User: Fold this.
Amino acid sequence: MKFFNLLNNLNDKQKEAVSADRINMLILAGAGSGKTRVLIYRIAWLLLVDKVHPLSIMAVTFTNKAADEIRCRVKTLLGSNINPAGIWVGTFHGLAYRLLRLHYLDAKLPRNFQILDNNDQYQLLLRIIKTINLDKSKWLPRQAMLYINKKKDEGLRPEYIESYSNPIEEMWLRVYKIYQEECDKSGLVDFSEILLRSQELWLNNPDILKHYSNRFTNILVDEFQDTNSIQYAWIRLLASNTSKLMIIGDDDQSIYSWRGAQIENIQRFLHDFPETKIIRMEQNYRSTKNILKSANTLITNNNNRLGKFLWTEGPDGDPISIYCGINELDEARYVINKIKQWNEAGGNLNECAILYRNNAQSRIFEETLLYFSIPYCIYGNQKFFERQEVKNVLAYLRLVANRNDDISFERVVNVPPHGIGKKTLEIIRTVAQKNQLTLWKSCEYLLTDNILARNKNIAISRFLSLINSLDQETYGMTLHVQIEQIILKSGLRNMYEKKKENKGQERINNLNELLTTTKQFNYQEDSQDITPINAFLSYVTLRSDDSLVKENQDTVQLMTIHAAKGLEFPLVFIVGMEEGIFPNQMNIEDVRWLAEERRLAYVGLTRAMKKLILTYSKSRQLYGKEVYHSPSRFIDELPIECIKKVYLNTNISNSISYKRTNTKMNKNYNNYLLGQVVYHSKFGNGTIINFEGNGDRFRIQVIFNSVGIKWLVVNYAKLKCQ
Assistant:
């Protein structure tokens, strides 16, 4: 592409950002404003117009999907003019891992070090907590993960943490120390360790830092509002006096402080780079005017914003619908009926998204979708590489690549059964702990000293021989053949083939999909010093935000609002818009956390392209109790001219009505129907809104015109159907 064509089809602010001189820039990019396009075109401009070398460019993203898109689109944009292969594009973790691979000796890592995923980190911490005789119901492995990851994100090793004689802090510190010793012994690094270790690599080796600072003089960082402390320090350390940075972010979409993201990093950047030029990208290409006006009005209730105002040349669109359900069942049925209407009018199911504040809210919508036989998928559900059968294969691969990987050893030492039971494994662990050995070395020690019974010695010997033979016999094979042989000779395929139920075939299908993935895997880049297996294992772990699960394409999408960031849908429902749910009860009293809840609502609103519906309930079952919440304050903060309120067709309101569908829930419910009008001698007329129980315990929930909601046992209520 000719450089003068680069600016075609860009709006004025996009052009300003793409064609700016090589200066430090903050691109304040609103939702749906085309920030990815700007980042891609800026890279092309640097190469074609400013004539910088591809090796001088680093682009940092927050997902592997975004990194893949940037690589592909930059290559397409440049055509045959320039080879962009030298550009480093990736996530913080991906780029830091690349550094560690290139400088593993300086980073004090073994050549075949492996990445510990979240599940394996949990298992390791669970084992440590058991080993030091802590009560795992009080000292939770998940809490240990949060503690350790937080300390690493702050750049803190155990020796630099002050406990102030606090016994709880001292115990977590002990767990952290033991955990890190175990990781170092086994050649494992967790996600937080990748960044901390790469930062320490630079700090401890000024010549290496100088090399990369001199090389990367053009640094671009996306989603800057989501950076945490160590990520900011990492970028700040890399940026030399000659480096020019373009950071792209939106302070109004900073919603991840619970995992360490610091909205203050944008202000910190402006302080550390005082000559930074700020460009506001406010033209939105996603949503209607009513949706944008509502989002703009909502977010103005937050203080200390950098400030921007989203606008569009598109139509006003429909007003935002606000539906008040009688209970959570009524809310769910309203939502699903609206989806059915959308689908019957020619819309696709995958154009519909149900967004909620927390995962527990999905249950009632799942049940209702199942009842109406509407296919759905939960976005961000179990990933392909987290599935049991896939994890087992990966554990064999890790053990073949690194015999000191205790986590993988424990996972497959008796999968398929090798005659090494829990008691034998406990002996192996005890010997390992006593002698400061890995589990593999502990097995060798036991065999040498002939400590165990003969049959146990044979079982252990066979397992060690199996791993050694898998290594030797598959060495030099192409990756997919190598892994195919490991699946076969380990006995995993045979084990799953013997399972008669559908689950067995599903697991076989996933093994085949894994082989397909290995055939498509390309490990050429910076991998001359690394085996194909090690390269593939790292690729798998670093792509933990991706899913290879092949879902039905036309399905309703269910997800948390956090998971929805970066996505868009023609029809969006935000459900559970009640005080105590959204905003979350724990965040209501704290101004800082309430501001983040509001930003989360802003993100939810700006996912909608054409139609946005907010719902809440007068009452709902929550943790086994019926609770009553008031509508979310965020509904009150929307401009009245942009919304319309929808109510159930009862005497509660004479506003715009929604007519229920009289669908029989179950033929055993004595022919009572949801939405059916009944008469009670004391309470008068009312509408059935829920059922519960069977037989003599069968109850119905009725909203009466005079006294509100009541639960009635049908055998005693003497109701008359109208």
Observations:
- The mean pLDDT is 88.
